[in-house]
Amino acid sequence: MPADDVPALMVSSALDRLTELDKRIVVALQRDGRASWRTIADRIGAPVSTVSRRGQQLLIDGVVKVAAVPSLDADGPHAQFLVRVNCRPGTHMAVAEALVRNPFVRFCTVVTGSFDIIAELVVRGPATRYPQVVLDLQPIDGVERWRSDLIMHVYKVSYDWGRQLFADLIDDSAPDAAGAEDCEPDHLDDIDRRILAVLKEDARMPFQRVADELDLNESSVRRRYDRMRANRCVDIVTLVQSAALGMEAETFLTVTVEPSRMEEVARALADYPFVRYLAATLDQNSLLCEVITTSVDELYRFVTDSLAHLEGVQGWTANMELLFLKRGFIETPWWRAQAQDPAVASQPG
Question: Do strands 275-281 and 117-124 pair parallel, antiparallel, or not at all (unpaired)?
């Protein structure tokens, strides 16, 4: 049963039963979503049979979803926009669901604070095409205020934030595309894109199954995939609900920075393992910093002991994430179950 088809109550129940071993498997999958169960077993020091059984169950239950998507550069020039939305009371979940269905929305999350929803839109081509993209979005029933901001530069996107929980799993020698050039549209042909379309549903699908579905040779699929990875044309996204790993606080910080110190502050923030996303926005010389911490206390220590003392930081505003519905263009398999939480359902518009 695909993770997207798993009943909401089943996902919620599975989240409550995660063991320490389960969490270590998840963190290893965040590091390399296509790693073999044997590789993961060696990394976390557990029997292969146990890791294989528990890992496959996590995928079946929808606790974890591993997807492969083309990198942003694979489709040519693009512009990214940060969108903050205020909704009419009682409509925020309907608005969020409508945003999730839109293919231009890369991530979408329900938040507390001065806004109800924060999302990112990716526009193919120049930024001037943005008005065409939002024609179908701004009129969504329930939207009362729509604020857009151009994302000028992305400093960090991390899908393996769980490594902060297990220091022994930090392995910077893991396969990556270091030294490779950025992907270009001509790096992919129609067959490559068909392979990625299959792996978007399940990035752990064996190459032989992919080949069978597409009537291709297994070695050809493997060779093409390795080339796409080497050329940075594919991102492997491992999605897991932060609460499943015991992370209590996901927060967007909009950090206002002295213009001359923007790069300096960004480099300092990017070094923190719990900073999942970091980008410079056009408005008010600010950095959008997404932080995921084990507790509210840890978040407090970060903003008071670290952020407040960074040279160039002038202040910040914050929105705590209640529920993220989409990340990396992939809808999370558990958001419908989590949306039943009263704290999410009662979020004011």
Answer: unpaired
Where does the pLDDT of residue 281 fall: very low under 50, low under 70, confident under 90, or very high at 90 and above?
A: very high
**pLDDT at residue 330 greater than cutoff 80:** yes
Structure tokens at 277: 């996303």
Q: What share of the chain is helix, strand, coil (3-state, %, to 5)?
A: 45, 25, 30
Cα separation, 169 vs 185, in Å, equals 34
The whole-angstrom separation of Cα 206 and Cα 217 is 13
The string of DSSP codes covering 102-147 is STTEEEEEEE-SS-SEEEEEEEES-GGGHHHHGGGTTTSTTEEEEE
**Helix (DSSP H) and strand (DSSP E) numbers for the chain:** 13, 11
| Tens digits of residue pLDDT in 30-59 | 999 999 999 999 999 999 999 999 999 999
Q: What is residue 299's three-state secondary structure?
A: helix
Taking only the tens place, the pLDDT of each residue in 114-141 is 999 999 999 999 999 999 889 889 999 9
Structure tokens at 288: 């959008």
Q: How far apart are CA 287 and CA 313, in angstroms?
A: 10
| AA identity, residue 274 | F
Rounded distance, CA 240 to CA 262, Å?
A: 31
Contacts 24+ apart (CB under 8 A), 265-271: 265/310, 265/311, 265/312, 265/313, 266/155, 267/155, 268/310, 269/155, 269/307, 269/310, 270/155, 270/156
